[in-house]
From TrEMBL:
UniProt family annotation: Belongs to the isocitrate and isopropylmalate dehydrogenases family. LeuB type 1 subfamily.
Source species: Mameliella alba
One Gene Ontology biological process: L-leucine biosynthetic process
Binding site for Mg(2+): D224, D248, D252
Entries under Gene3D superfamilies matching the protein: Isopropylmalate Dehydrogenase (3.40.718.10)
Protein name: 3-isopropylmalate dehydrogenase
Annotated compartments: Cytoplasm
UniProt EC number: 1.1.1.85
Reaction(s) this enzyme catalyzes, per UniProt: (2R,3S)-3-isopropylmalate + NAD(+) = 4-methyl-2-oxopentanoate + CO2 + NADH
Annotated binding of substrate, by residue: R97, R107, R135, D224
Quaternary structure and interacting proteins, as annotated: Homodimer.
Matches recorded under SMART domains: Iso_dh
Superkingdom of origin organism: Bacteria
Function field: Catalyzes the oxidation of 3-carboxy-2-hydroxy-4-methylpentanoate (3-isopropylmalate) to 3-carboxy-4-methyl-2-oxopentanoate. The product decarboxylates to 4-methyl-2 oxopentanoate.
Gene name tied to this protein: leuB
Amino acid sequence: MSNPSLLILPGDGIGPEVMAEVRKVIDWYGAKRDLAFDVSEDLVGGAAYDAHGTPLHDDTMAKAQEVDAVLLGAVGGPKYDVLDFSVKPERGLLRLRKEMDLYANLRPAQCFDALADFSSLKKDVVAGLDIMIVRELTSGIYFGEPRGIIEEGNERVGINTQRYTESEIDRVARSAFELAMKRDKKLCSMEKANVMESGVLWREVVTEVGKDYPEVELSHMYADAGAMQLCRWPKQFDVIVTDNLFGDLLSDAAAMLTGSLGMLPSASLGAPMANGRPKALYEPVHGSAPDIAGQGKANPIACILSFAMALRYSFDLGDEATRLEQAVEKVLADGARTADLLGEEGVDPVSTSQMGDAIVAALDASL
Ligand code: IPM
Ligand code: MG
């Protein structure tokens, strides 16, 4: 059997730096666990725009459709702010999500014990936190028509449309219930059914799907109240399912509870391919951080943990994913901190590549 294939798209800003550390981890699995991957690399975002005048070349899109999993770094940067909307770096990422039909975006927010002090919330509120946000990723206001900026009378109007079909809600709800079944069997669905028809339909469909999962305790919350509860007592949640825009906001808020955006991975999953693996793209939740790019300051952990999610969700290697997660935990417990995690007196930061090396060393020690 041929090796599983990975397409790596480092992207912009700190993307290439953090991805270089993921490559060390991938190589380690090939050398030490006999898990070799066929890795190819290509451009996305501003890097692709600079080379091809488009944030995602058609050939790259075609490759992404063929591989077993895509690993993406980050896209965007101030240099591209002036570009037309249609060729902004972000469009490359949105095209990947849409054309691969990656409807279920899994964003875990886990607080590592060693980092509980970094949260802006009190330690007892976040210590041991382990929640999973499932964000719908291919529909809603991000993609709804009509959209645009039009002239009306003597002024312009900006338009975006929130739109959800029953089947779009149904499939992401099922992904969330399936995850809840493997976790603490609690699912909270968030929308704005008090003001939005799409929210009313969302609530109805999720409730209906819930009948197929009687063991899962389902609750509903308005998304604004959900945001408040996430800050008040996040440990009340296990799995949260929500739409594209609310998921974008709530996942950033949840991420910050854990202390640093630099820690959190994500998986975007679609329907199973012919080989049974889901269409999949893995990427850190953080952005391209242009202010620190190229200085060896970036934290590679979110990107490395995104590869751990690939091991778990694409390659059914849950034990190896856990091995990698534990290696990260050990390195943090031993005190290694990239610049984003500083705060303690007398601790010097490690560089991006030192952090990667430390994680590889912890993997070695796990054997
Ligand atoms: C995210 C990001 C993206 C989004 C941007 C980069 C298009 O904020 O993945 O959360 O809005 O979905
Ligand atoms: Mg976001």
